[in-house]
């Protein structure tokens, strides 16, 4: 007769009762899931945590406990907190990049406005046309253009 | 006769909680001072003293303080949110990163539009002055202001949110 014990009861080497708190969330086909959770939280604590929750929340709780346990095993010093720190850093970096680009856009916008004003004003200067006639090769001189 | 406990250190929060003698080499003592009883109480409730002790013994001494602080953080988060714990915070932050990435892409697109329109405007101006002068030529304008296209790569792309689970729920 095939064993119908859940992963938790298999791991704990005990009989799996019909009302086993673990069986729905730690199926026998994924032994690692319970092994991780047991290593970090302990079977007793996990059982208590699940018992204290309404039935419809227990699956999510088991998933998040597995996720936390997995993170802690991967990174015994920081666990999930390491990931939180990385995400905070990412958020800060992206916000800085957005701010830089917005500043660049604002600068270009202001610059374009002042250049438009320059385009109109020189036509009122009587010496301007004379200067323009004198300009032959100076378009290649980058010093003429002072952006 | 002098009392044997007259010069002993006060027990750490862990040993006080566990009602046992706090020995000189107590693994918990440096990280659970008696002035912070709640810290150990939380960690004990979620992880258990035995698991914490094993975990600390597997970590180098100079990393233990950080480990204890992160465990305390996770324990407190789990007590506040028994369903998701600090994983809830991770979900929120990941959504924020995605949202900001979209905003960054949109802002980059705006910049490209501005630099594109700026280039065509300056080309017009150049052509105009050229007609007034020698009728040709123009200054070169490099629209590249030195701001690289802003990209970033996320180090955490939900790859730890493993699909290996048999639960009925989803995160």
Automatic annotation (TrEMBL), chain A:
What is the source species? Forsythia ovata
What broad taxonomic lineage does this protein's source fall under? Eukaryota, Viridiplantae, Streptophyta, Embryophyta, Tracheophyta
Q: Which family does it belong to?
A: Belongs to the LOB domain-containing protein family.
User: Do you know which InterPro entries this protein is assigned to?
Assistant: LOB
Name this polypeptide is given: LOB domain-containing protein 24
LOB domain residues: 4-105
Automatic annotation (TrEMBL), chain B:
Annotated LOB domain ranges read 10-111
> Origin, by domain of life?
Eukaryota
* Biased amino acid composition, Polar residues: 150-165
Q: Where is this region: Disordered?
A: 150-171
- Give the family, as the similarity comment puts it: Belongs to the LOB domain-containing protein family.
> What is the protein name for this chain?
Protein LATERAL ORGAN BOUNDARIES
Q: What is the originating organism of this protein?
A: Forsythia ovata
